[in-house]
Write a structure and sequence with these properties.
Number of domains: 1
Number of strands: 2
Strand content: under 5%
Number of helices: 9
Helix content: over 70%
Distance between the termini: 129 Å
Structural class: mainly alpha
Radius of gyration: 33 Å
Shape: globular
Oligomer: single chain
């Protein structure tokens, strides 16, 4: 082998391409795409979590509300059973218990006690624990059942059942619309609240007047007002949901939402019953 001629054999130079501006743009664009995709995934995951939490919250509201309505119905029916007896001629007569709750000043106590309790719950809700709020709500539902038991003396059982299912179907449709509509019902709700105060004042006046015509007008307006309040309250309950609420706050909101929908349903039912119920 011939010796090298005094010079080392150098390796061939490797050509290294300098980075171009386009490469930097491509890399930046790729990083942006990855970051954007990650952000979208996080946003989508958060939206799914919020939707799941909202559904759970609304389910709690409807469960409390339905349980309250069921409790009111059971107490009303049991009270009626203890308050009346059927004579040998088929006539209905009051027992001593029935005479006490329907024919003495105790009647006014049974009527006003639920009103006082619902005001107490509304004004003291922020100072109550979630369990205490639920307990008071069910006590209110039971006490209202005592005063509503009188409807079994006034209307036939068949018409009460019929109007109840009509009210339940109407309530379900209106509440569903309030939950799904994209329309803001805030302004609509202001007029409904004004109508509600009008109904209360007119009802108090009619206690002393005893006008059947005025009662009919109140009932018609009541159906309209409480139908609208059902949708408005549902939307308000939905908007009040906050995924960051702790268990106590979420529990209070669920109880207050159930109370609002419970009152909407009961008043819608009573208004329809006055219009379409068959009297004994």
């Amino acid at each position: 082998m011939p010796a090298a001629s005094g010079r080392d054999v150098l390796p061939l130079p490797v050509r290294v391409r300098a980075p171009r501006r386009g490469d930097r743009k491509d890399k930046s664009k790729s990083d942006f795409d990855r970051n954007y995709a990650a952000t979208r995934r996080i946003g989508a995951d958060r939206a799914v979590a919020v939707d799941a939490g909202l559904r759970a919250h609304m389910l709690s509201v409807y469960n409390y509300m339905a349980a309250g309505v069921a409790l009111t119905g059971v107490v009303a029916w049991l009270t009626y059973q203890f308050a009346v007896i059927t004579t040998s001629t088929g006539a209905v007569a009051l027992t001593p218990f029935g005479q006490a709750i329907y024919g003495t000043p105790l009647t006014w106590i049974l009527m006003l006690a639920p009103l006082g309790l619902v005001f107490f719950i509304s004004f003291r809700i922020n100072a109550l624990s979630a369990s205490a709020a639920r307990t008071l709500f069910f006590i209110y539902a039971a006490s209202l059942g005592l005063s509503l038991s009188v409807i079994f003396l006034v209307y036939t059982h068949a018409s009460i059942t019929r109007v109840f299912f009509i009210s339940a179907a109407a309530f379900g449709g209106l509440s569903l619309w309030g939950y799904t509509t994209g329309r803001d019902l805030t302004a609509f709700g202001s007029f409904l609240i004004m109508g509600l105060f009008g109904i209360i004042i007119a009802s108090l006046v009619n206690i002393f007047l005893g006008s059947n015509q005025l009662q009919w007008i109140i009932s018609v307006i009541g159906v309209i007002v409480f139908a609208g309040l059902t949708a408005w309250d549902t939307q308000k309950i939905k908007e009040m949901y906050e995924p960051m609420d702790d268990g106590t706050v979420a529990g209070r909101k669920a109880v207050m939402g159930a109370l609002a929908l419970y009152l909407d349903f009961i008043n819608l039912f009573l208004s329809l019953l006055r219009l379409f119920g068959d009297r004994r």
